[in-house]
Specification:
This protein folds into two domains: 94 residues, no CATH class; 126 residues, Immunoglobulin-like. It contains nine helices and nine strands. The radius of gyration is 26 Å and the shape is globular.
């Protein structure tokens, strides 16, 4: 009589065909969404690439068996970065990213995002004409045909407040026939250490439609600890357009 034998399946082989899920798959959705976003500004694409470089720690985290909480925090940072740069505007993207960094929602320990988001910063320790040439900007260039003290007639008055110093600033729009458009005033309070920006406070922009010779004024409150030139703080403005403007000297030293 013939005997038939039934062989049991090799469970070890079946098990080997089922690979355990990789922790890195948790971030597939975030990476996929980043790839599918449509951008109109190449500068924003570069900024996104720099910012998302921080998220490279996600893959390392999976291999180093880090905690789920830390992985979730890294994913949250990736999501915030995508939201911050989804503006089609380099300037607004930088504002969003710097806000998230200042509030500790995004980690920028090596300062890579901050360096990408540098705004025009005149070196106020040297003459204004050289300061214009030494400005650094992301998406904004400094115009060089104006001397602040003679052409902008800057006047600054200072008054102490309970927790701040109030600066009332007025200036004359420069006479520049080759650049008749003046619709934006940007205001920055920044700290320079070794000629590099280390901290910043960005104030809301002023929007208008000014002509050369028009008088423009604004009032801002600077926290008392920031109104200190001894620690490298600068208060500056830049008048022009979103793409090019004339920077001022350090208003903290320009008391009229």
């Amino acid at each position: 009589m013939a005997h038939s034998q039934i062989e049991a399946p090799d469970l070890s082989d079946a098990a080997s065909e089922v690979a355990p899920p990789k922790l890195a798959d948790k971030f597939a959705s975030a990476q996929k969404s980043a790839q599918t976003l449509k951008w109109s500004n190449p500068a924003v694409i570069g900024l996104l690439a720099t910012a998302l470089g921080l998220v490279g720690n996600l893959a390392m985290a999976s291999y180093n068996d880090r905690s789920t909480r830390e992985l979730n925090r890294a994913k949250m940072q990736a999501d915030l970065i995508q939201q911050a740069v989804n503006t089609h505007s380099l300037q607004q993207s930088c504002r969003n990213l710097l806000f998230f960094i200042d509030t500790a929602f995004i980690s920028d320990s090596k300062g890579k995002i901050t360096q990408q988001c540098l705004y025009p910063l005149p070196q106020t320790e040297i003459p204004f004409s050289n300061a214009v040439a030494s400005t650094a900007a992301a998406g904004t260039s400094a115009l060089q045909a104006v001397n602040a003290s003679s052409n902008m007639g800057i006047k600054v008055t200072r008054s102490d407040q309970p927790d701040a110093v109030r600066y009332q600033v007025s200036f004359t729009v420069p006479n520049e026939p080759n650049n008749p458009t003046f619709n934006t005033v940007k205001i920055y309070c920044t700290q320079l250490t070794n000629r590099e920006r280390t901290q910043s406070k960005i104030y809301p922009e002023m929007q208008g439609n000014w002509r050369p010779g028009d008088r423009v004024s604004f009032t801002i409150d600077v926290p008392t600890k920031l109104a200190n030139t001894q620690t490298g703080w600068n208060l500056t403005f830049c008048v022009g357009t979103d793409s090019a403007c004339y920077p001022s000297p350090n208003l903290l030293k320009f008391i009229s």
